[in-house]
Amino acid sequence: MTPLALASPPLGLTVIRAAAATLVVAALVALPAFGSPFLVTQFSRVLIYAIFAMSLDLLVGYCGLVSLGHAAFFGIAAYVTALLSDKAEINNILITLPVSVAAAALGALVIGTLALRTSGVYFIMVTLAFAQMLYFVAQENAFFGGSDGILLLAPFRLGIGDSTWLSLGDRATRYCLILSMALLVLCFLSFLVRSPFGCVIRGIRSNERRMRALGYAVGRYKLICFVIAGAHAGLAGHLYVVLTSLADPSILDWLHSAQVLLMLIIGGIGTLIGPALGAFVLIVLTDQASELTEHWKLVVGVVVIALTLFSRGGIVGLARSGTASLFARKPS
Amino acid sequence: MSGARELLRSERLCKNFGSLMAVRNVSLAINESEIHAIIGPNGAGKTTLLNVLSGELLPTSGLLIFADREVTGWTPDRLARAGLGRSFQHSSIFEDLTTFENVRLAAQVRLPSSMRFILSARRYQEITQRAEKILADLALSHLTATLAGEISHGEQRLLEVAMLSAIAPKLMLLDEPTSGMGKAETRELIEVLRRLAHEHTLVLVEHDMDVVFTLADRVTVLVNGAIMATGTPEEVRRNPGVRSAYLGERA
């Protein structure tokens, strides 16, 4: 859908974009100062799901791999984090973060190696099957807390040895950590999709057969992409436990994977910033609607259907056609 | 035949689809820096042969030797990295990328590895310049920023060749490069191929007899999946079997 040109957009558009980005980042940084506790926690969640959605966008939007099992890597990292805290009393994110992200990456390496033997609908089904397998393992096993999951009592911290530099039991500190992680991920993935590697995976999405004929070992690039996406989903899963102190089977459920896919569709697939916006829209919409009525799913459903009907490129698609017509009207 | 160095050789190559023998006992020798055309009536198995030579199809039996190495069963990407590149009869381009990005992505395969994650692809000067030069050589520079899916059919055929030449293979397998092109465009492409032949060995599957007889150093005639004749264009033209089986039909 989106033209994957590397060419730079017109100057006016760049200025508008830069201004909008600065405003949004400034508002996000200032949020703990003026926002209510509820708002700070809500936006912590939004930012975690922005990371999760961007990681899936790398797979779906850039590499053309539609996965319905992306929650597996979110869940692996979440459970590893929870287990480290619960069983080994390790609450230092300097340890839990790298360990849980590495576990998610390893999970992605194993699942990816097997799932990438298939493609298209079969790939969707195989990724779904693996995630559901993990769901039942967590659900049926007392070690993983069964259907109640693992609830943590001690808050996480950042420090070396016994010292604590940042206490993540504090709402605002936690939010700042999550915000900086989300911005870091956005920056890294923005660079990634323009790098030689990014060009290769976009080529694979566009025409896999041709990529082979040109001499690219397509399978290897897909697997690395799958692992990078899995690791980022793991980062989101880790931060989720830091925020909520809970890892329960519902985060491994396929509905969780579908929910992120919905964020991509709402925001605009293959745009990175779109899925992040999609996370914001879906979470805020769900929270607002469920406060108003018990039939909140109906409200969310109608909004999603309307967005997909009237803008095939999601929110970013709408914004692009909007600014495009704005610039088209000006005489050059 | 002898004297020149052999670049690609097939020995008793066969490809069956069920009971259909699409390629039968094809023993072919392509010499370095020649233009070798493969012709034959529709359904003779030309494209199947090309797909076997480029690794897209596994041969049922037989051997494939490229640059003195046995390469039977190699995947297309491995063959391409070894220097055996191909183009497609139905343009196989990246429609949602710009024309420039199509060629740049092809040229990028010459990096030792594309596992580079941070620096923008545009910063790799050597690759970018190579892509620009190839687009200029093929008179496609004015289309640099246009999406490949939006350029004309003839331009897409040229782009197809541009991408192949960007990876600089030792041997180019070209599947009907002029298919669907007009007279003027065909002439233009013949010139491009002639230029490419200075640096590359070309194997050409072609329908257009004008193209074959103006370009080819040697011609192989394929009928019902088997080689009927191989030789210079003159020899092949005089071959009575070829005249009745193929050229005669058209006269």
What does this structure look like?
The complex is a heterodimer of chains A (332) and B (251). By secondary structure, chain A is mainly α. Helix content of chain A is 74%, strand content 2%. In chain A, the strands form two sheets. Chain A has a two-stranded antiparallel ribbon with strand order 1-4. A two-stranded antiparallel ribbon of chain A has the order 2-3. In chain A, helix 3 (71-88) runs parallel beside helix 5 (121-140), helix 10 (254-267) crosses helix 11 (273-292) and helix 10 (254-267) packs parallel to helix 13 (314-329). The relative contact order of chain A is 0.17. Mean pLDDT of chain A is 92; it is low at 1-6. Chain B is built from nine helices and ten strands. With 251 residues, chain B is α/β, with parallel strands linked by helices. In chain B, the strands form two sheets. Chain B has a six-stranded mixed sheet, with helices on both faces. The chains are: A mainly alpha (332), B alpha/beta (251).
Count of DSSP E strands of chain B? 10
Q: Which structural category do the helix and sheet elements of chain B fall into?
A: alpha/beta
**Uncertain stretches of 5 or more adjacent residues of chain A:** 1-6
* Cα gyration radius of chain A (Å): 20 Å
- Mean pLDDT figure of chain A: 92
Task: Quickly give the structural class of chain A.
Answer: mainly alpha
**How far apart are the termini of chain A?**
26 Å
Reading the helices and strands of chain B in chain order gives EEEHEEHEHHHEHEHEEHH
Task: Classify the beta-strand content of chain B into a percent band.
Answer: 15-25%
The DSSP helix count of chain A reads 13
Content of β-strand of chain A: under 5%
The count of strands of chain A amounts to 4
